[in-house]
Amino acid sequence: MKKCIVFDVDRTIVDSFLPEMLSLKEAIENVTDRHITESEMRKITSLTTSEFYNYLNFSNDEIKKINKEWEKTFSNYQTKCFPNIKDVIKKISEDYVICIITSRTLEEFHELDDELNDVIDCFKIVITSDLINNPKPSRDSIDYLCDKLQLVPEELIYIGDSIIDKTFSKNCNIDFIPACWENHELENEDNACFTYEEIINKIDLFK
User: Fold this and answer.
1) Residue 185: CA atoms inside 13 Å, Cβ hemisphere, count?
2) pLDDT of 87
3) Looking at the predicted structure, is the pLDDT value of residue 4 above 70?
4) pLDDT tens digits for 52-105?
5) Which contiguous run of DSSP H or E holds residue 62?
6) Are residues 200 and 96 in contact, defined by beta-carbon separation less than 8 angstroms?
7) CA-to-CA distance for 192 and 181, rounded, in angstroms?
8) 79-90: buried (b, 16+ CB within 10 Å) or exposed (e) per residue?
9) For residues 203 and 158, what is the distance between their CA atoms, to the nearest angstrom?
10) What is the CA angle 147-133-67, rounded to 5?
11) Prediction pTM value
12) How far is CA 135 from CA 127, 130, 131, 132, 142, in A?
């Protein structure tokens, strides 16, 4: 029986894609003085960040500097929740324990305080990447959650948008629902969701 629904944050609860792209563009231009065109930026929608850097022919030294600068520029852009996702979270919390496991650090998660203020109490626990030794796709965060809440992996469902999230779920032996309303990496996967409201129906399939 499923008792706990665990959410990823970026591109699952919050629409971080546009802020990510704008802040990355700014970071690249700050570090390299190279103007990145709109057509070049569009390439990242079909590439990983590493592949995108290779596409732009950046050296390893440039990549390190860009990533460091990106941490700074990202804070300049406001990240918003997806429309209606809060209503879905509130609805799910009526029947399940709900939690968050995110690759964000605690400091980065607190950047969303204003945006998540009216739903944060719905979450029993929030596990950020600096709370455990090895972040996703390692199973450390699930082990931490299960220990704190006295659950077993079979009682959990993880909802996330990326291949890393899928790998994480597989590593943890927990069921997975792909969130495909922003990132379409997993659109061909079983149980893929394309609207927030679909989550509830997909959860019901695991009963």
Assistant:
1) 19
2) 96
3) yes
4) 899 999 999 999 999 999 989 988 888 899 999 999 999 999 999 999 999 888
5) helix 60-74
6) no
7) 9
8) bebbeebbebbe
9) 10
10) 135
11) 0.81
12) 10, 8, 9, 7, 10
CB 129 within 8 A of CB 104: yes
Nearest residue to 123 (alpha-carbon basis) of 34, 8, 46, 18: 8
- Taking the C-alpha atoms of residue 114 and residue 105, their distance in angstroms, rounded to an integer, is 17
The rounded radius of gyration (Å) of the Cα atoms in the chain is 18
On the question of pLDDT at 45 being above 70, the answer is no
Q: Using 50, 70 and 90 to split pLDDT, how confident is the model at 14? A: very high
Tell me what the pLDDT averaged over the chain comes to: 92
Instruction: Report the first-to-last Cα separation within the chain, whole angstroms.
Output: 6
The one-character DSSP state at 18 is H
Q: Is the pLDDT of residue 188 over 80?
A: yes
Cite the DSSP H helix spans in 131-188.
140-149, 163-172
- C-beta atoms surrounding 1 within 10 Å: 6
